[in-house]
């Protein structure tokens, strides 16, 4: 588990206020009490991002009486959603994605980020402050929950950034680079970032689901259907090693692309 500590103000990045940033009105919502696997597939194709409600994790667990119970409940939720995704894609076996996280050597981890309030923002008319710079997650899937303080933004296909309304009772799923490769680009890993808030402190908790380090990653044969693979075969260990050496904002998935 990692906990990010408070950065100093001058370590944070300022950016021009972006007029096109508006609330994400088309946010796909997956209701796990009556799941439609096709909705999850569509959300992954269109946005690489969706919100899960009625997930069945009790509030006592969400409020973390014990962190291990919390992480384990989120991991099981990730398995469930990944299995629905395989069903929606009509591929077998249904654990084709989830087995990468179920593996005892899965390279998954849990991170808590704390974004302290930045009152300095009030003096910066028209500028926003980046709390966490734009990036895609290198893993297969990330499962994020935050307190009720906004800040998370995702980048749409047209390049516009939209703000994700905070909802402390729900989980947000983020498609990672490995999922993009396994689906031969049908799903796109989504660029996201976090803006700082003047008054309120944001806390986010994310489970990053990654495969075992020695696992060879390539597009699933069952999804290629005669298409050429767009990606080279790499182990997760090779990819994460190279990704960590590069800049977070770089298009790290290009390391996988066939030239
Ligand atoms: O804090 C958030 O809402 C997003 C965090 C994030 O993108 C990350 O930890 O990689």
Notes on the protein architecture:
With 259 residues, this protein is α+β, with helices and mostly antiparallel strands. The protein has a single domain, classed as Sandwich (Jelly Rolls), CATH 2.60.120. Helices cover 24% and strands 25% of the residues. It has helices spanning 37-46, 59-62, 67-88, 98-102, 177-182, 221-224, 236-245, and strands at residues 2-3, 13-16, 22-23, 29-31, 49-53, 109-115, 127-135, 141-146, 152-155, 161-163, 171-175, 192-195, 202-209, 216-217, 234-235. The strands form three sheets. It has a seven-stranded mixed β-sheet. α1 (37-46) packs across α3. The longest helix has 22 residues, at 67-88. The protein is globular. The mean pLDDT is 91. The protein binds 2-oxoglutaric acid.
Notable characteristics:
metal ion binding, six-stranded mixed beta sheet, Jelly Rolls, 25% strand, globular, seven-stranded mixed beta sheet, Fe2OG dioxygenase domain-containing protein, alpha+beta, Oxoglu/Fe-dep_dioxygenase_dom, binds 2-oxoglutaric acid, 259 residues
């Amino acid at each position: 588990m990692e906990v990010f500590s408070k950065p100093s103000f001058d370590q944070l990045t300022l950016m021009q206020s972006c007029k096109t940033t508006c609330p994400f009105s088309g946010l796909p919502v997956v209701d796990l009490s009556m799941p439609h696997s096709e909705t999850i597939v569509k959300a992954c194709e269109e946005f690489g991002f969706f919100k899960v409600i009625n997930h069945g994790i009790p509030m006592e667990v969400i409020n973390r009486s014990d962190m291990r119970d919390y992480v384990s409940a989120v991991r099981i939720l990730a398995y469930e959603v990944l299995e629905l995704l395989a069903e929606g894609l009509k591929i077998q076996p249904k654990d084709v994605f989830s087995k990468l996280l179920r593996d005892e050597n899965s390279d998954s981890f849990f991170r808590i980020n704390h974004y302290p309030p930045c009152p300095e923002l009030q003096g910066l008319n028209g500028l926003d402050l980046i709390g966490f710079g734009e990036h895609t997650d290198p893993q297969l899937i990330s499962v994020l929950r935050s307190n009720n303080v906004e800040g998370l933004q995702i980048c749409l296909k047209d390049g516009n950034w939209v703000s994700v309304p905070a909802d402390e009772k729900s989980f947000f799923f983020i498609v990672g680079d490995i999922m993009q490769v396994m689906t031969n680009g049908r799903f796109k890993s989504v660029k996201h970032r976090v803006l700082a808030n003047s008054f309120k402190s944001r806390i986010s908790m994310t489970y990053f689901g990654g495969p075992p380090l020695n696992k060879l990653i390539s597009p699933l044969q069952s999804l290629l259907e005669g298409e050429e693979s767009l990606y080279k075969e790499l182990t997760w260990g090779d990819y994460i090693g190279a990704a960590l050496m590069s800049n977070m904002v770089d298009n790290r998935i290009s390391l996988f692309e066939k030239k």
